[in-house]
Amino acid sequence: QVQLVESGGGLVQAGGSLRLSCAASGRTFSTSPMGWFRQAPGKERESVATITSSGAKTYVADSVKGRVAISRDNAKNTVYLQMNSLKAEDTAVYYCAAAPRSSMWPFASANTYSYWGQGTQVTVSS
């Protein structure tokens, strides 16, 4: 069982930055691929970025490439999403999720994930 708690969302002006954190409980965090997803009103949940269990490989969606970085600290059971040059279209609820150890790279499908956080709202004002 893994519990995930996101934090760091909020209201920011276009062009600003935010760092989201996701704190995980449970013994399996260090072996779990992790992902960040987002869902805007009226839209489907979409992948933002994913990371392997060791942190050696990351995937970033084309829609945010060059503006977003995912990282993790397994000693702290935490995964991060650094977002820069934010745009109004980045407004969404952001979720972190944990995938089974055996998941196939790049873990971009929401169906891959077994555990989800409650989400944190990011609002970008233009």
Q: How do the helices and strands line up, and which of them pair or pack?
A:
Layout: E1 3-7, E2 10-13, E3 18-25, E4 34-39, E5 46-51, E6 58-60, E7 68-73, E8 78-83, E9 92-98, E10 115-116, E11 120-125
Parallel strand pairs: 2-11
Antiparallel strand pairs: 1-3, 3-8, 4-5, 4-9, 5-6, 7-8, 9-10, 9-11
Structure description:
The chain has 126 residues and is mostly beta strands. It is built from no helices and eleven strands. The protein has strands at residues 3-7, 10-13, 18-25, 34-39, 46-51, 58-60, 68-73, 78-83, 92-98, 115-116, 120-125. Strands 2, 4, 5, 6, 9, 10 and 11 form a seven-stranded mixed sheet that branches. A hairpin with a 4-residue loop joins strand 7 (68-73) and strand 8. It is globular and about 40 Å long. The model has no long low-confidence stretch (mean pLDDT 96).
Biggest beta sheet summary = 7 strands, mixed
Q: What is the helix/strand order?
A: EEEEEEEEEEE
Tell me the overall shape: globular
Structural class: mainly beta
Contiguous uncertain segments of 5+ residues: none
| Count of discrete alpha- or pi-helical segments spanning 4 or more residues | 0
Q: What is the share of helical residues? A: under 10%
Q: Based on DSSP secondary structure assignment, what is the total number of beta strands?
A: 11
For the residues shown, what is the average pLDDT?
96
Q: What is the terminal separation in angstroms?
A: 40 Å
> Radius of gyration in whole Å, from Cα?
13 Å
